[in-house]
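[step 3/7] fold_predict: job queued, chain A
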Amino acid sequence: MRKYIVILFYILCGCQGNTTSDDELAKNNPMAFSVLLAMFEQESAPDFDSNVLAYAKIPAFDDDSAGINPLPFNDIVTYFPKTASLILKHKKCDFYIIKQKKDNSNSFDVLHSISPEGALIYHFVPTTPKGDVCKAIRSVDYWAFLVEDCSRTLNQSIPIRYKTHESSSWKCDDVIPFNTQEEWISPSILKI
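[step 4/7] structure written:
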């Protein structure tokens, strides 16, 4: 019995206060935004807004439900199953979902900023060695952003603007980690 108490003690002590390792875990987690955007660091690419907690592939929806909509806390697990258990301490905030229909498998989106004045989403696309945008690879997928609103200033009538980010480091035939995951999570909530 004493042996088990000692083992339990070491386990508990080893799980506390290791913020450096926690930060590294969040930075290197294969589902973190930081991993998704790692190859774009040299080109000063747009990053996710700090209020964006997740970006996930979701079931198909009709065009009427596209855009920004309130999302009850208990419904988060429906769209963001891996994120849901990580945000229990955020329960006091309001949540929104921004649904999008994506028709090019050779692209992905980054919700760069969101405020009561509007949202800005960058559409990342690869380029040729000459700097031209690569030909789109047609396929229809449905994706959504999970947005946290602790200040309770957002609403579903905010306008959404789109800009294209033509990547100078992502080339047409390069594989990026985007297509390897169906849910990407903010490094801020991956910290223990």
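[step 5/7] annotate
The beta strands are 52-57, 67-70, 94-104, 108-115, 118-127, 138-149, 160-171, 183-185.
The first helix runs from residue 2 to 14.
exit 0
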